[in-house]
Amino acid sequence: MNEEFEAYRALLFTIAYRMTGSAADAEDLVQDAYVRYVSTDTDVVRDVKAFLVTILTRLALDRL
């Protein structure tokens, strides 16, 4: 599970940074996305990348 997340960490950071304009906020959002990801039943996740990007963008929109 951790390897799946790490494969997309850079992408998630880039998206979060572009949305917030702050590296600190972007890192916080990536960590929040990780916490949500590990607490999710990954057996029902069909596309990990889409799932993580969706979580992250929703968290960023909530923060903004």
Secondary structure blueprint with pairings:
Elements: H1 2-20, H2 23-38, H3 48-63
Helix pairs in contact: 1-2, 1-3, 2-3
Shape: globular
Largest sheet data: none
Summed up, the helix count is 3
What would the average pLDDT be, to the nearest integer?
94
Structural class: mainly alpha
Please mark out the parts with pLDDT under 50 across 5 or more consecutive residues, or reply none: none
Secondary-structure element order, as H and E? HHH
Rg value: 11 Å
Counted beta strands: 0
Helical percent range?
over 70%
**DSSP strand (E) fraction?**
under 5%
Could you tell me how far the N terminus lies from the C terminus, measured between alpha carbons in angstroms?
A: 29 Å
Please provide a written account of the structure:
The chain is mostly helical and 64 residues long. The chain contains three helices and no strands. Helix 1 (2-20) runs parallel beside helix 3. The N and C termini lie far apart (29 Å). The mean pLDDT is 94.
Give a quick set of tags describing it.
0% strand, 64 residues, 3 helices, single chain
In short:
The protein is mainly alpha-helical and 64 residues long.
